[in-house]
Amino acid sequence: LLQLMFLFVPLFLWWPCIIICALCITNVKACPQNCTCFNYSVNCSELSLNKLPVLPADIIALNASFNNLATICDHSLLALKRLQHLHLDYNNIHTLESNCFHSLSALQVLTLVKNKLRRIPKEAFVTLQQLRKLNLSRNRLRKIDWFSFKGLHKVQVLHLERNALSLINDGAFGNLAQLLELYLNNNKLTSVGQTWLYGLEKLEKLILSSNSVSMIESKGWRFCQRLLILDLSKNRLSALDSNIFSYLQRLEKLDLSENAISRIDEKALSSLGNLEFLDLSNNELSDVFMSGQHIFLRLSKLKVLNLNNNKLRSLPSNVFRGLDQLTRLELLNNPIIIFAEDSIPRIETLEIIALNSSDVLCNCKSKWLISFFQKATLIGEHLRMARCKYPPKHAGNLLISVPLDQLTCDVYWPKPEILEQPQAIIGLQGATVTFNCSAVCTGGCNVLIYWSKNDQRLYSSIEEGISDRLENEGNRTWTSYLTIEAVDEPDSGFYRCHVINELTMTVSNHVSLTVQIPPFFTKRPENTVATVGGTIRLECAASGQPDPMIFWQKDGGHDFPAARERRFHVMPSDVVFFIVLAKYQDSGVYSCIANSSAGFAKAEARLTVLDRSALVMTSTDKAVDLGKTAVLQCDSREDKIADGRTVIQWSHNGQPFKLDKRRFIAGRGHMLVIVEARAGDQGIYTCELNGNVRTLRLIVKELSNEASKKFHSKSKSDDDNDDKDDEKKNDDNNNELSSTNVKSRRENGFDILSTAGIVIVVVVLCVVLTSFVWLCFIWRNRRPASVVVAIRPDPLELSAVSTDIGL
């Protein structure tokens, strides 16, 4: 027994080892063939896989990059519910099915770099609610739709660089509320629109380098005001306007290198008070610096400024004013000749100045610069390469080794002179004006001529209609032309030209541009009706440049009773004109005329003065059915209309009556005819004849629903044929007038087709029918009495009959 116990004891001791080994063998089998497994991560990269192998269900990370996978929708992924990192870079994936990720709800990182994706289908990522980083770079995407990233509410980093993106639709990133970094470099974008930036309120880093951006809509930055880093390098920007970065007040790093920037407004960078790094290298800023603009004035926190390769030839005085914390200034590969006094900031924080120009003018005006460089301890290796070129005795000498006592100003240097000063111009609004300025530079030096308005530099702008050109005559005389198209009041101001060579500047006199605006009315006189003895109020006001003078005419003349009798008054502080103690003779057409050197304008109004003592006013109501013809008649007594020169004035609701082919005047003005009356024709009509006024109220009665529909459909068809009817206007008017006379006679007499006519006819027929019935009844009762022969029965026969029937 003891021997048996010693025999079985080793077996019991080996059981735990056997179980552990079995478990290890099971784990080894769970890792796919040729893949590498570590903890909960599986690496199946660079295996030329066409399909994913069967994977352990509990893995957290999977790397299947550098294979030949053509689709993501693989059954092997459906079971990976704990997967957090998925890398499928450098495969042949060409499409994303919308249901491929429905089981990967825990996924946090997804990279699909260097595949063949051409589009992002709708709701492709809608189930990836926990995704933090998405990399779709190096694909073939051409546009981003508004629904492309639906559901990615927690994504913080999005890579879309190196695609073929040329269009980003409105609100494309609206679902990425938590996005912090967006990479769009190396695409084909041409503008930064204000609509596709919507929703990026938390964005801190935006990379747009290596695109073709030539336009930036500054209002778009209001959607990403938390931006800290902005890279716009290697684009096609040519100008920075005054408000281009006005919403980016938190920006710390701005890269604008390798563009074609040649114009910077003085206020373009003024809102970037927190900026620490600014790269403007590889642009064309020579004109900006030669003009003496202070574009860095508000950058008090800037530490690094890169101005390499900008063709700078001179640095004006205090050009770097405001850079109080600058530590590094790079001016490499600029052929700088002139350093104006205090052009380099002499501040304690400045540690490095990178300068390698070999064209420096070393004379008495450069003594301050050479002294500063020789004493400074911050000299960098590039500064030691700067050399003098002028005058010839110092040519080739290192800047830091020139003796200060040899820096003199006795050497002649060519200076530009202005031959023809620009002239003041007075232009009419909308006209095109041109300034010209001619200069000469002795010694054949090259010059630059630019223009300023109110001492602010002007730049050519197609949108603003401003252009300038420079002509060179024999390499000696230079003429610049400044053309302003369609001038308006904002173009008024003082202009001057600036002529610059490498060493100095000459400016012309200030000349004015005055834009004259023809008079235009801000208040027009209105038709007025008054009575004798009353006060008449006329309003008339005009504006323009210069301010116009206003005067009045009556019936085309300057002499009229109110002015002659001093009853015409003007309020000095207002635009109101009064005629007091009005007379009947004051009636007529009054013209308000605004006149200035830019032109004149004329407005007319009719004044009617009525005599109450002779005023006869009558009032009449006129009712007509919808669609019928209405005839309104003024006082028709022959003594009032016999004079052919008498004018009858009609008005509708107090406004002058407008005639058309449906509403016209007949009978020398005393008859107003309205064909096919409509609801809009209702109201008060007034006719004035020889001081007498008659008012007529027209009421248009509605028809039944069916009749109204027929009328409106007929009216609509008639309106569609208005253009065709215009060709036969005269013939139609004659026909309408003749038919109108017939209809008017019906209205004045009896119209059997009217409702009243039908009722009367029916009543008459009923009376006639009733009378006929009564006549028949009376005739029947009045016939002569008939002869009746009565045959009395025989009593004997009657008794015989009675016996037979048993009575």
Reading off the top of the CATH hierarchy, the class of the domain at 416-515 is best stated as Mainly Beta
**What's the total number of strands?**
51
Question: Which structural category fits the helices and strands?
Answer: alpha/beta
Number of helices, where a helix is a run of at least 4 consecutive DSSP H or I residues: 11
Could you name the key traits of this structure?
807 residues, disordered C terminus, Immunoglobulin-like, Leucine-rich repeat, LRR (right-handed beta-alpha superhelix), 16% helix, 28% strand, disordered N terminus, alpha/beta, 15-stranded mixed sheet
Overall description:
Among the domains are: 258-354, Ribonuclease Inhibitor (Leucine-rich repeat, LRR (right-handed beta-alpha superhelix), Alpha-Beta Horseshoe), CATH 3.80.10; 416-515, Sandwich (Immunoglobulin-like); 524-610, Immunoglobulins (Immunoglobulin-like, Sandwich), CATH 2.60.40.10; 616-703 and 737-743, Sandwich (Immunoglobulin-like). It contains 11 helices and 51 strands. The strands form 12 sheets. It has a 15-stranded mixed sheet, with no helix packed on it. Strand 46 (649-652) and strand 47 form a beta hairpin. The longest helix has 29 residues, at 2-30. It is flat, with a radius of gyration of 50 Å. The model is unreliable at 1-29, 636-645, 721-750 and 785-807 (pLDDT under 50). Pfam families: I-set, Ig_3, LRR_8.
